[in-house]
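Q: Focus on the shape:
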Amino acid sequence: MRIPILDLHPEIEAHWEEFCQAAQGVLKSTQFILGPNVAAFEKEMASYLGVKHAIGCNSGTDALLIALRALGVGGGDEVICPSFTFFATSEVVSQLGATPVFVDIDPQTYNLDVSLVDKAVTSKTRAIIPVHLYGNAVDMNPLLAVAERHGLKVIEDVAQAVGGSYDGKKLGTFGDIGAYSFFPSKNLGSFGDAGMMVTNDDALADTCYKLRTHGSRKKYFNEMIGYNSRLDEMQAAFLRVKLKYLDASNEGRRKVASRYSEVFSGVDAVEAPVESTKANHVFHQYTIRILNGTRDKVHTDLAAAGIGTMLYYPVPLHRLSVYKDLKTTPLPNTEQACDQVISLPIWPTMKPETQLEVVAAIRTAMGV
């Protein structure tokens, strides 16, 4: 793509020497599994987020899976989550024999509509997974009130919102456990798969540590059936470099998003992202809604012009074949969003003239 949806080259070039030093340090140490960089990164992330425990693992998907296991979710349980999200959010629920209960989204934020959660709770409900989609915060205060009223656990899916905040507090630190992904395209991205769980609960942290390493804290003394889900030492070394620049990088994304929104303010058929007054949106994606029925044409035309865009997400989870037997209440806002949204190129150092080229191509494809 002439203009990719994400250009990682500027970040890599800016910190090239630090990345090389980090890699060489790992190679020279010959400690490749749960070495000093993993321990240091866990400590640094815990400090950055303001939590007691940060436990590295293999991926954001594993972080969700282990979090649910640690909280005791299993067969026969129900877990409330949005249908407008990546498959992993509900996939891990199903892997444990539990049932995802899909709730509609707020049409402005694309996040879980908290006002609908109460009605979705049944005697089988065990937990809620709010997803901070596109880098924007779920309205956590009322959600936590619902969870407390019903005695439910809360696992925050922060895969797309690392560094974001709500009411002055970092996302992932409100619920029982926060689950992060460091997939390369994320705001804090590794150079491979990587993830993390965070919590202030000592017992939950201990269980997460065990589950990520075959159910043991001490080698050969396994206490439960667990997983091989260790954060890679090399990835931890790279992430330590990137963490130092995360806030500046997120601020760069916010500036790019602000420029987009200013330009789109004069285009009636485009609805720009909405940021909650309590949130610090970190714009993992800059996602617009196209209102005149040309979304698919815009996606196709921009691809032909060498401009990368993505449809996050073209099919709601409740419409996937794997969930055809679930009885899901109508989710009109979710289905409408799947038909209308499109995510545009964004990275922290994106130039204004590049953005204007993207916007011009969109207007041409829309016929406005």
User: Anything to note?
Assistant: The two ends are 24 Å apart (CA to CA). The longest strand covers residues 53-57. The chain has a mean pLDDT of 98. The chain has 13 helices and 13 strands.
